[in-house]
Amino acid sequence: MGEQYRAVHDPVVALAYLAGQTSSIRLGVAVLNAPFFAPAVLAKQAVTLDEVSDGRLDLGLGAGWSDDEFAAVGVDKRHRGRRMAEYVAVLDRLFSDEIVRHDGEFYQVPASRADPKPRQRPRPPILLGGTAEPALRRAGRLADGWISSSRVDPNTIGKSVEVARFAATEAGRDPDALRFICRGVVKVRPGGDPERRPLTGDLDEIRGDFARLEQQGITEVFVDLNFDPEIGSPDADPAVSMRRAEEALEALAPR
C-alpha cells in the first residue's frame, strides 16, 4: 500500500468526533469494509453516529479487497458478493425490526432486540462501493447509491452508473432516486497542462471536470485530497497540508 495509507485513522471514531464539531454537513466514509464488522456491532455504531449527528450519517460499505487485511481480521475472503448482499439484509432488520432474527449463510442473529433505532427512517442511507459489474448491480438492487473507488477513471465512470441504474430498474426501483458518488482524487496544480489527467489542474479546470462528471450521471463528488502527496503524505508539513486542503475545499464547495 502507498504511504498515504499510513495517515488513515479509524473512520468510525473520526466521524464521532466530527459529529460534535459540525452541525449541518453530512458525515460518511468511503467505505467501511463490511466483512470486518459483525453486522450487529456495526449497526450499533451506525445508530449511535446517526443519533449524535442528529441524522446526518451516510453509511458507505465495501466488500474489502486486501488479502492481508482479511488475514489480519480472520475473515474468509471468498464469496464476498453473497456476503455483502446478506449483510445489507441483516442491517435492514437490525435497523427496523422490533425483534430481529436471522439465520443465513454467513451471519446468525438469535431472537434479539436491537435498540435504539436510527434517527433516519427507515435507515441511514447505505451506499455500496465496488467496481466489478456484479458489485454495481448489487448497489442498484439493494442500496441507496454507489461510491466509486479512488482509482476510477473519471472519463468512463458513466458506464458504471448505467450498470447500477439498469439493475435498479430491473429490480423495480427508481434509478433517479439513487445517489452516485465519485471519489475523485483531486490535485490542485498550475493550469494549462494539455496532458493533465481529470481532476488535476487549476481550480477552473477541476470545476469543469465536475461538470463533465455530472453529465455522466454523477450526483456528488467526494474531493479526496489524501492521495495528493503534497497534502496526504505523512512526510508533508501538517500545517501547510491543512491550509492547502481548506483552501481547495472552500474553493470547490457547491456554490
Concise synopsis of the structure shown:
By secondary structure, the chain is of the alpha/beta class.
Please give the structural blueprint.
Elements: H1 11-21, E1 27-28, E2 32-33, H2 39-52, E3 57-62, H3 67-73, H4 80-96, E4 100-103, E5 108-112, E6 126-128, H5 133-142, E7 145-147, H6 157-170, E8 179-185, E9 187-188, E10 200-201, H7 203-215, E11 220-224, H8 229-232, H9 238-252
Helix pairs in contact: 1-2, 2-4, 5-6
Look at the structure and give the mean pLDDT: 95
The helix/strand series, from N terminus to C terminus, equals: HEEHEHHEEEHEHEEEHEHH
Tell me the count of domains.
2
CATH topology of the largest domain: TIM Barrel
Number of alpha- plus pi-helical segments = 9
Share of residues in strands: 15-25%
Q: What percentage of residues falls in helices of 4 or more residues?
A: 40-55%
> Which CATH-level-2 architecture of the largest domain?
Alpha-Beta Barrel
| Category by helix and strand content | alpha/beta
Sequence stretches where pLDDT stays below 50 over 5 or more residues? none
| Shape type | globular
Write the CATH homologous superfamily of the largest domain: Luciferase-like domain
CATH domain class name of the largest domain: Alpha Beta
Q: Please outline the major beta sheet.
A: 7 strands, parallel
Radius of gyration: 19 Å
Distance between the termini: 36 Å
